[in-house]
Predict the 3D structure of the following.
Amino acid sequence: MPLSLWLSLAAICAMGAMSPGPSLALVLRHTLGGGRLPGMTAAVFHALGVGVYALLTVWGLAALIVRYPALFQLVTWCGAAYLAWLGIKALRAGRSGALSPGAAVTTPRQAAKEAVLVALGNPKLIIFFVALLSQFVTPEMSLLAKAIIVATAIIIDGGWYVLVAVGLSHSRVLPWLQHHAHWINRITGVLLIALALRVVIGPIS
């Protein structure tokens, strides 16, 4: 995979990971309720769950491209519509939501269990990855290239939420996030809508 193409993949994965939602709320809750270790545990196990969906999506997209190109195009457009909907939802969001979780006492074991359930229990991740990975998966793609795509999704998702957990160990970070939540939502919304338009235009080369 060319470096320029991988950088595009990494940037889009990072944008998806940083988008406020249930995953962010999960890491915030376990960090505030149990400290740095439960928060980091939630981040790592959530990334593993994301990796499962990324792997399934890469395999499924490769099969669709080869056998049912028209269906692949339809699925891609549905994914783009979902990304646009997420963007509109983010633009309409205020300061509350994922950045205002209720803290409760928690443990690393609870954090791991809930993180996996949140990731695997969210089938919308499949739609997100279809829209995302449709820009990078090709019929002739090697096994190594597919592995790089999946590993990139896992490492960026886990890395971002680990940073969130570590950052929240400092008491000044969360109030700053809460105060600027509306700007985070607005920026995320614009980027998601832009990504949806890019998906409609065609694969990234």
